[in-house]
Amino acid sequence: MREEIFMKMAVDIALENVLTNRGGPFGAVIVRNGHLISIGRNQVTAKNDPTAHAEVEAIRAACKYLNRYQLTGCELYTSCEPCPMCLGAIYWARLKYIYYAGTSQDAAQAGFEDQYIYHQFTLPKQKRSIPMIHIPTDNTYEPFNAWSHQPHKKGY
Ligand SMILES: [Zn+2]
Predict the structure, then answer these.
(1) What is the overall mean pLDDT for the chain?
(2) Distances in whole angstroms, Cα of residue 113 to Cα of each of 51, 110, 140
(3) How far does the centroid of ligand 1 lie from the alpha carbon of residue 19, in Å?
(4) Neighbour order of strands in the sheet with 27-32
(5) Cα–Cα nearest to 26, from 41, 46, 39
(6) From the CA of 51, how far away is ligand 1's center (Å)?
(7) pLDDT in tens, 25-40
(8) Alpha-carbon distance 121 to 30, whole Å?
(9) Smallest Cα–Cα separation from 70: which of 85, 50, 88, 92?
(10) Ligand 1 geometric centre to CA of 87 (Å)
(11) Residue 55 designated active-site
């Protein structure tokens, strides 16, 4: 089955990432019209970048390859269920399907905080572990007003 081949590829990338000590146990690939267009591996520690998750890396590479900022019609295969950040990036990228092998429970057992962050999102803002403080200013709406009147904007 085609899906299983790409899924195994994502898991192999994750395994190779660990065995070569390049980063966390996560890999991802993006496929368009049945063709592999990008791969991503977790590079958080290698790049000192907390956003360098496999899925985000694969999305960045696919967008660069296609020279566009949305991946409409593309499929993502990831070695593990996406964390909240990656899931958000996947929605922004407008991917068509998410295939995953491991679950967020598997990630939690390996010491990763996906489930903890998912839970934080369900809490009221004032109950989350990172305080989120609303400070409206007199220019809060100026960027939105400018955007709505910008004739040359590129919507996304
Ligand atoms: Zn992630």
Answers:
(1) 96
(2) 14, 9, 33
(3) 20
(4) 35-41, 27-32, 74-80, 97-102
(5) 41
(6) 7
(7) 999 999 999 999 999 9
(8) 27
(9) 92
(10) 7
(11) yes
